[in-house]
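Q: Got a minute? One more chain.
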Amino acid sequence: MEGVMMKNKDHYAVAVRKPDHEIIVEKREYAGICKNNVIRNLVFIRGIINFLESMILGMSCLTFSASFFEEEAEETGTEEKEKNSKKERLEMGMTIGLSIVLALAIFMVLPFYLSLLFQKFISSETVVILIEGAMRLIIFLAYILLISRMEDIKRVFMYHGAEHKCINCIEHGMELTVENVRKSSREHKRCGTSFLFFVVLITIIATMFIRVDSRVLRLVLRLAIVPLIAGISYEIIRLAGRSENVLINILSKPGLWMQKLTTKEPDEEMIEVGIASVEAVFDWKEYLESIKGEGP
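A: Always. Here it is, folded:
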């Protein structure tokens, strides 16, 4: 809420614009849910780990930013603060769990059962699976369009735009100033929106190979492959962020188009927040000097 989070290796920073317009920046270390580097770097497994860590870190940052917009609480003692901290962690865990359940119900279970209605009229299992995939994509797009109409979410999408523009500004070798950020693109191939698009696309492909008679087993197998799909999607956007291959760029286009919905043009104050979050975890001046030194 009213902020931007930037992560660089084991550190992340959250910059928030308070109601009095002051920018608060909090920098922390985040070791992650898996400290074994061998496991963390396994292909496909690292995507699942990254996805779970992003959810946990996102909820933590959301809780931090929201605290500046709640009513002033009375001063509490150390013991009370510890109780509140434990309560917040429990609530965060429950929220993440509920979010995962709802996401699976809306984007996996619902399209599956809706597609079964067509089995009465269509004998081809392949066509029914394609209908299921189309419904999943329609539900996903409808969800984004629906939430984008909410005023609070519009501002979140504007901050999302500020985040992308700051990253693009640096990656294109420009100094991180408000003017340069304003000129930068708000689309980025490593965005979570692109990740979710690939999740939907790969799910359609993967379900083509799930052909069993039992409806219950078909649904269970669809849910079981979700972690694998997340891992594959992560590898694709990871490759997309490092490659300018023509095929990779073509595959990235739909995700970039969808970012027109999930990012909006930020105002100057939002850009300043984005810059503050970057500077807390990344020395962009040193980075620009290093790429200048690499010159042609």
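A: Residues 15 and 25 are 4 Å apart (CA to CA).
Q: Perfect, thanks.
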